[in-house]
Amino acid sequence: MMDNKPEECSVCFNDYDDNQLRPRTLPCGNTFCSPCIDNAIENGQLTCPSCHAQHAATAATQFPISYGMEAFVRKLKDIQLTQEKPVPAKKKLSFLVQEQKSIISSLITSCEEVLSQLGEYQGQLEDWKSQHLQFQDRLYALVEQNKSAMKLLELEDTSVVDMTTQGEDRKTQLQAMLGSLDTVNTRQEVDITKDTADECSMKIKDWLQKCQELFPDVKTVHTSVKVQETIKEALEMMTTDTGATADLIYLGDSASSITNKVQEITGEVPQKPLTVEDLRRMREPVKRLVKAGWVLAIKRLVEAGRVLAVQEDQDGCRSARITLQDGQLYLHPFLRQPTPAHAHTLQESEVVDVLDPSCTLAFLDFGWAGSTRGRVTIQLTPDTSLARQFVLLCMGQRGHTYCNTKLLWVGDKGHPGECVVGGDYESNDGEGGASLLPGLQGQYRRSGRAGAVCTRGGPGGPWSAQFTITTRDRQDGHQWSWVFGDVVTGLDVVRAAVNHSDIREVTVVDCGVLLPL
Q1: What angle do CA 500, 501, 504 make, to 5 degrees?
Q2: Cα–Cα distance between 355 and 329 in angstroms, integer?
């Protein structure tokens, strides 16, 4: 129903003003006076009296003032005043005084709000300064540790130099005695040389033993390695452009609070629900976004694997990861899996509604020998039942998925018409893979080219959910039937799988669809 009195609050039915009944706009778009918003807040949550949307809030001052509504109310009052009969001069004076009081009171309220924001911002600045001082103390401690390690290394180096000098002297003496043995002529000379050699030998053995006992000094080596590791980790965490000028971010209108603007700059995630529109905005130029900080924060959440689509059924809750790769968003299959701490979720219906059947791209990730070898992206033929069934099994919406299924066998390996079969989601041995959808019959393409994706045995057979991917063109004039898609990227991955020593070791380690946002 249309609101015939936009100048009044729809909860208390009082006209908005510039003092106590200031109009404030909620994120859902509805506007109410400040006291009514304060009265509606319970346990940090505000339920919109009009649309019942939930907003995190502790006070009405968190929401921006609707200056447009205030201007409308003032204009409306001016029109009403011009239509009224002239009042006595004394009454006009009283009205002017009251109007000035109202304006001044409104300015005082605005000052108090900004002073409160400044106080909060100052507290944040003090916290940051305290953290920097703590970091500075830790850096000083790290420098002192490095100095101590250097002193130990210098002492060790001095000791090594001394022992090296002793060893060189002993070696020179032995070489001299070795030379003197070539010139002895009498038994007496031999005995003298032998006595000298025995004495020198004892010194050499003593030197060798000391070297074994002294080096390396465990404390010196351990301290040096640990300090080096700590410093390397600290340096790797530092960015090379900390002193560079950051890209300017448009912070929106002046009604935004100082705290909200700080959150936008730092990328701190506010406590508000995530929407598909937020994901869509990640692809817009950052500098043109009003909420650039929020969008950058969402991007970091997606990259960290903390954004999920959730599906509720009679058996509980299942979730699907949403990931970002090469600038594209991908939805993975719905599985019963632990939800990451502080995850942000979207309802399955919100995410699935954005899928366009006419341009659906699905993917299969193949892996073997303990690692993922590559992604195969498939363009599905629009408006075919087999394509819709393939999407359901890639997404796991009905509890079954191609994830963790094996490739079953290779047909015509090494010859024209080579193909590979997989997709037995039931028994994983080629005997299962029944249809998920009724009435799979219809008009389908035929193809003799590599990269075609079709069903095994036709849409009416017992294995209609199994898929066949062709890897070599046919040359006998025949064509594959029941084609519902084509490989657009990753055909080399399929061919590598075909050439693996045992095709049944190749697994669909992951699957899903591309989100066209």
Answers
A1: 80
A2: 12
| CA distances from residue 41 to 33, 178, 273 in whole angstroms, order as listed | 13, 100, 17
Q: How many residues does the chain have?
A: 517
Q: Other CB atoms closer than 10 Å to residue 482's CB: what's the count? A: 24
Nearest to 49 by CA among 73, 64, 22, 29: 29
d(C-alpha 359, C-alpha 387), whole Å? 11
State CA 336 to chain mean position distance.
21
* C-alpha 192: how far from chain center: 82
For residue 334, report the phi and psi dihedrals to the nearest 5 degrees.
Answer: -75, 120
How many Å is the maximal CA-CA distance in the chain?
Answer: 148
Q: What are 345-381's pLDDT values in tens digits? A: 888 888 887 776 556 899 999 999 888 899 999 999 8
Question: What is the C-alpha to C-alpha distance for residues 386 and 440, in angstroms, rounded to an integer?
Answer: 6
Q: Which residue has the tokens 């502790």?
A: 58
**Residue 265: which H helix or E strand, with range?**
helix 258-266
The angle that helices 187-214 and 89-180 make with each other, rounded to 10 degrees, is: 160
What is the three-state SS of 167-204?
HHHHHHHHHHHHHHCCCCCCHHHHHHHHHHHHHHHHHH
Q: How far apart are CA 496 and CA 19, in angstroms?
A: 73
Per-residue pLDDT, averaged over 149-153, amounts to: 92
* Cis preceding-peptide flag for 216 (omega within 30 of 0): yes
What is the per-residue pLDDT across 257-290, written as a single tens digit (0 to 9) for each?
Answer: 776 667 656 655 555 677 888 787 776 654 444 4
In 23-85, which ranges are continuous DSSP H helix?
A: 34-40, 67-83
Whose tokens are 């100082």? That residue is 258
The span from the CA of 340 to the CA of 247, in Å, is 31
How many CB atoms within 10 Å of residue 334? Answer: 25
Identify the CA nearest to 24 among candidates 14, 33, 11, 16.
Answer: 33
Q: Contacts by 57-60 with C-beta closer than 8 Å and gap 24+?
A: 60/24, 60/34, 60/35
Pair of tokens at residue 205: 């053995």
Give the Cα separation of 310 and 317 in Å (integer).
7
SS3 assignment, position 311: strand
pTM of model > 0.70: no
* 8 A C-beta contact, residue 510 and residue 325: no
Segment holding 399, helix H or strand E: none
pLDDT tens, position by position, 468-490: 999 999 999 899 999 999 999 99
**DSSP per residue over 480-510, as a string?**
EEEEEEEEEE-HHHHHHHHTSS-GGG-EEEE
Distance of alpha carbon 351 from alpha carbon 165, whole angstroms: 76
CA 171 distance to own-chain centroid = 64
Query: SS3 sequence, 320-343?
Result: EEEEEECCEEEECCCECCCCCCCC
